[in-house]
Amino acid sequence: MTSLFLLALLSSLVFVCAIYIVHYRGNFSPLVQDERFDLAMASKALPVAVDPVAAGKRLYNTPGMCVTCHQATGQGVPGAFPPLAGSEWVNGTEERVIRILLHGLTGELKVHGGTFNGVMPAFGQGAGGFNWSDDRIAHVLTYIRQEWGNKAAPVEAAKVTEIRTKEAARGSKSWTVAELEAMK
């Protein structure tokens, strides 16, 4: 009985001491000692710099996304999905590839002399469950335009926003090769 009383007394004492320490800690934070965390910077919401190529690579390689059809090497699937590596479509005008990613592409496409007749889903119109932001689209396009030997300029989110606004009336209708080639 005495040992049970003593155990209860010591437990109560530890509990009261813990409450006292928490209440009178003087606003001390253990994060002050962590060099990875700066309390002064945490109070200010600073934008985090994002590497568009690294962000685009993560999005591209997400299972079920771009890598599924175009492969990790950017070589695509013969006869079905075109290669992105060295593609004149990828390295061409940024407006064309933005439109393809926003609305998708249907119909026969020629890349590197090969003919492909797959369907590219829309990633910017909510069709097929995709509704990527302008930043995401810009990141993926920047990645594919600078990977596998491609040397095209990066794509800015502002340009994606411009094209999305310009083509808003198109809705969820996919582009055809003829429509894209007719654009100057």
Overview of the structural elements:
- There is one protein chain.
- The mean pLDDT is 85.
- The protein starts with a helix and ends with a helix.
- The protein has 184 residues and is mainly α.
- It folds into two domains: 41 residues; 131 residues, Cytochrome c-like domain (Cytochrome Bc1 Complex, Chain D, domain 2), CATH 1.10.760.
- It is elongated.
- It is 45% helix and 5% strand.
How would you briefly describe this protein structure?
The chain is mostly helical and 184 residues long.
How does the helix and strand content classify structurally?
Answer: mainly alpha
Spatial shape? elongated
Which CATH top level class of the largest domain fits?
Mainly Alpha
- In the CATH hierarchy, what is the superfamily of the largest domain? Cytochrome c-like domain
Show unreliable segments. Answer: none
Strand content: 5-15%
Give the ordered list of helices and strands. HHHHHHEEEHHEH
CATH architecture of the largest domain: Orthogonal Bundle
Q: What topology, given as strand order, has the largest sheet?
A: 1-4
CATH third-tier fold name of the largest domain: Cytochrome Bc1 Complex, Chain D, domain 2
Helix content: 40-55%
Summarize model confidence as the mean pLDDT.
85
Number of helices: 9
Count of individual domains: 2
Could you describe the largest sheet, including whether it forms a barrel?
A: 2 strands, parallel
Q: How big is the Rg?
A: 27 Å
Distance between the termini: 93 Å
The number of E-state strands comes to: 4
